[in-house]
Design the sequence.
């Protein structure tokens, strides 16, 4: 009987220890606030900010409901960020037809002259940056940044973006903006994330005011 009780007590202690470890692991995540600046140190809007690591890549899942509309002969939004495998719809809300295309290696496609919403969305299945255009209206341009991480966002007018629920660990902090040279990859730097919230400033040297 004593042996049985001792074993039961040991199992209970083990369960409590595992539970405490899981709670501690869940708690070891915080918000990373990134302020993106241009080369002059001014806030930079519409910068795509994301954190990459092997663990983050394993957690990434396609996002739902991604949409790039055409209004007043413009793409809205002009900059979109999605995870690999995400489907994006392209509703034409103008009164004129558009011919949306991309010749980027990340995703090559054409949505020939249409009004309304195409029946099939476009699935972005490779990481990288796709440049979009309209074959009818040359002034129209947009970008789709495809990432392999659930920790991403786009900076506001203040240059700030908050990446929530980021587990503690070592990451590459990557930042991209359409003001970079054509074909330029995202700039990056190492970032160690702790259990508490933290803030960092990223100056994107390749973008001038």
Sequence:
């Amino acid at each position: 009987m004593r042996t049985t009780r001792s074993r039961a007590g040991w199992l209970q202690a083990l369960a409590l220890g595992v539970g405490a470890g899981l709670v501690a692991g869940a708690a070891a995540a915080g918000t990373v606030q990134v302020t993106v600046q241009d080369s002059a140190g001014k806030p930079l809007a519409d910068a795509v900010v994301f954190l990459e690591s092997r663990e983050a890549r394993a957690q990434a899942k396609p996002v739902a409901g991604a949409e790039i509309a055409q209004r007043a002969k413009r793409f809205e939004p002009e900059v979109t960020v999605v995870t690999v495998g995400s489907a994006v719809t392209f509703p034409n809300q103008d009164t004129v037809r558009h011919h949306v295309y991309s010749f980027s290696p990340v995703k090559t496609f054409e949505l020939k002259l249409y009004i309304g919403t195409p029946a099939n969305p476009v699935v972005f299945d490779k990481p990288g940056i796709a440049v979009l255009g309209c074959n009818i209206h040359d002034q129209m341009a947009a970008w789709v940044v495809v990432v392999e991480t659930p920790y991403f966002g786009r900076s506001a007018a203040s240059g700030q973006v908050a990446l929530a629920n980021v587990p503690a660990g070592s990451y590459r902090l990557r930042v991209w903006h359409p003001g970079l040279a054509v074909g330029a990859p995202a700039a990056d730097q190492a970032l160690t994330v702790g259990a508490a919230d933290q803030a960092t400033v990223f100056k994107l040297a390749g973008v001038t005011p």
Observations:
- The longest strand covers residues 29-37.
